[in-house]
Design goal:
This protein is α/β, with parallel strands linked by helices. It folds into 2 domains: 226 residues, Spore Coat Polysaccharide Biosynthesis Protein SpsA, Chain A; 62 residues. Strand 2, helix 2 and strand 3 form a beta-alpha-beta unit. The longest helix is centred in the last third of the chain and has 30 residues.
């Protein structure tokens, strides 16, 4: 199969028929074999009924319906498991991404041998303060911390080699950092293409300020896991040992000072309690490193989601 087109969605019943018509035109014009996997992330409108109707008209349409809202990362993770195409394209359901970009994205994967090609919405039609400025901050932080020179990590329109999506795990709000996940998994050929960004025609944006905070927290998490997920003792043990040594050095100084230079009681000096405190912190960090080595990083339940229905899968 040439293409798997993955579309996560939440309350997008108005846009889905128009988006599917557009995708069909592009697929037929290029004679692609394809599937369209739509993941209904707990919508409260008629999105699932629309998906079922689209399935009746076109057997390439496949659907997954979550029992409740889990988020975009969960939707992508489930769709990636099901995808069968040689190239996987992800795009948003709100018609702000153009299916006309698909042939060039696919070409860059196959002919230029990229593992991932990420869209760059150079000219945006979103609200400046609620989406554009936060996006610029996200992208600057992600570039600096990961070393990946992308202008738009958060663009929903991306293309992947099949082996990439089968070897990464997406959870939390980490869909915006998939290029970083891929890099840590050994897929380093990451390209970028300027893509068209269209004004929203239907519905309302699902972006909220809580995602601004969660996005940065997930960036810190992914950078930590990428560097120390397989060796937590290297992080906790290092800082625990340094903390303990500093505390022990202070305690040794106080002991020598007490017996040779001063008559002041050790427990009467604030430095004594500071030494005990950081020694205790050091021991706790060291133990945390041991526990981290013993506990598997991936919980067997972390990426299990309640799926109410499936069609075509």
């Amino acid at each position: 199969m040439d293409l798997s087109i993955v579309i996560p969605l939440f309350n997008e019943d108005e846009s889905l028929p128009h988006l599917m018509e557009w995708i069909e035109r592009v697929m037929h014009a290029n004679n692609y074999s394809y599937e369209v996997i739509m993941v209904d992330d707990g919508s409260t409108d008629n999105s699932w009924e629309v998906i079922e109707e689209l399935r009746k008209k076109n057997e390439a349409v496949k659907g997954i319906k979550f029992q409740r809202n889990y988020g975009k990362s969960a939707a992508l993770n489930e769709a990636f498991k099901a995808a069968q195409g040689d190239v996987i394209i992800t795009m948003d359901a709100d018609m702000q991404d153009s299916p006309d970009e698909i042939p060039e994205l696919r070409r860059m994967i196959l002919e230029e041998n990229y593992d991932i090609v990420s869209g760059w919405k150079k000219k945006r039609f979103d609200n400046k303060f609620t989406k554009n400025i936060p996006s610029k901050l996200f992208n600057a932080a992600a570039r600096k911390s990961s070393g990946i020179k992308l202008n738009d990590f958060n663009c929903g329109l991306k293309a992947y080699k099949r082996k990439v999506v089968k070897n990464i795990e997406v959870y939390g709000e980490m869909h915006r950092y998939i290029p970083i996940l891929a890099k840590w998994s050994g897929f380093g050929r990451i390209g970028e293409k300027v893509v068209e960004h269209r004004a929203r025609q239907f519905g309302v944006t699902k972006f909220g300020w809580e995602r601004f905070v969660n996005g940065f927290l997930d960036l810190f998490s992914i950078m930590f896991v990428g560097k120390f997920g397989k060796r937590p003792m290297h992080f906790f043990g290092l800082w625990g040992t340094l903390s303990f040594i500093i505390g022990l050095s202070i305690f040794t100084y106080l002991t020598i000072s007490k017996f040779f230079f001063d008559t002041t009681g050790m427990t009467q000096r604030p430095l004594f309690f500071f030494a005990l405190f950081i020694m205790t912190i050091g021991v706790q960090l060291f133990l945390a490193g041991f526990i981290g080595e013993l506990i598997a990083r991936n919980s067997s339940e972390r990426n299990n989601y309640l799926i109410e229905q499936k069609v075509g899968l």
